[in-house]
Amino acid sequence: GFGDFSRSQIHVEWDEHDSTEMRAAANYINGQSYREALHVLNETSERSAKWFYFSAAANFGMGNQAAALQQINQAISKDSSNARYRQFKEQIQGGKTTWYEQQSRSYGRPIFAGNSYCLELCAMNLFCNLCCGGRFCFC
Fold it and tell me: Which residues contact 87 (CB under 8 A, 6 or more apart)?
C-alpha cells in the first residue's frame, strides 16, 4: 500500500569516513543500481557492519531476500546497537510498517502509542465520567 516500504524505497547513507568504494556502493543503492552496488562491494576487502548492511540493501533491492537477511544478520552481529540495521531486518522480513513509523522509532514513540499508560487512564476517566456522573471513580 501507499507509504509501505518497498524495494524502490531503499536508501542508505554514507559519511566522510567511508571509503570511495563504500560511497559508490551507497550511491548505486540509492539510485536502484543494485547489481553495480554488489559489484563494487565485492571488489573491496572491507567487511564492516556497514558493508554487510549495504550488501543486504543491494541484495534486497535485487529481490534476493534470503541473502539480504543473511547479510543484515551479519551487520547486526557486528553492531548490535544500530537501530537502522534492526529496522531494515524488519523490512526484509516483510514488516508492514510505514516509512513514518520506521523514522519515529529513531526518536521514540509518541505519548499516545496504543498501549500507553496515560492513554489508558484517559480512557478510564472518560468511561467513569459517563458512568459516575462526572467524577473520577473506580466503577
Answer: 102, 105
Task: Collapse the DSSP code of 28 into the 3-class scheme (helix H, G, I; strand E, B; otherwise coil) and give the result.
Answer: helix
* Cα 64 to Cα 73: distance, rounded to the nearest angstrom: 14
Cβ-in-10-Å burial (0-12, 13-18, 19+) of 92 comes to buried
Residues linked to residue 4 through DSSP beta bridges, in sequence order: 98
CB atoms near residue 67 (< 10 Å)? 17
Give bridge partners of residue 94 from the DSSP assignment: none
Task: Confirm if 29 and 53 have CB atoms less than 8 A apart.
Answer: no
The type of residue at 132 is C
Note the helical H segments in 62-97: 65-78, 83-92
Say which residue the cell 539480504 belongs to. 68
* pLDDT digits 0-9 by tens, 84-128: 999 999 999 986 455 555 555 555 545 444 455 565 666 666 666
Residue 101, class by beta-carbon neighbours within 10 Å (0-12 exposed, 13-18 middle, 19+ buried)? middle
Amino acid at residue number 73: N
Give the length of the chain.
Answer: 139
